[in-house]
Amino acid sequence: MAENTTTQAAGRRKEVVGEVVSSKMQKTIVVKVVRKKAHAFYGRVIAKNKKFYAHDEKNEARIGDVVRLEETRPLSKLKRWKLIEVVRKAPLVAGAAEISA
Fold first, then answer.
1. Contact, 4 vs 46, CB < 8 A?
2. Measuring CA to CA, which of 17, 28, 73, 77 is 20 to 30 A from 41?
3. CATH code at 42?
4. Whole-prediction pTM value?
5. Strand 15-22 vs strand 28-38: parallel, antiparallel, or unpaired?
């Protein structure tokens, strides 16, 4: 699945890595970030999902891509992140080309 990292140094912007679940909007993608954490008492690993809306200026990200986002000023009602890079492209699927067209 997606690599789960959240980093922030003093005075720096947060960065997260996740998987694109929607790219149907113009210049906007929806990214699912999975955070895994061990339960405090039981020790079992629990996965928590969160969706982020991110600005994709060049419309380069597609569904299934793993991307890195950076925190930014509010760009719209829901968008507070921007695309920095596409970490890994999704494998090309025969039906995906017809859906994205």
1. no
2. 17
3. 2.40.50.140
4. 0.78
5. antiparallel
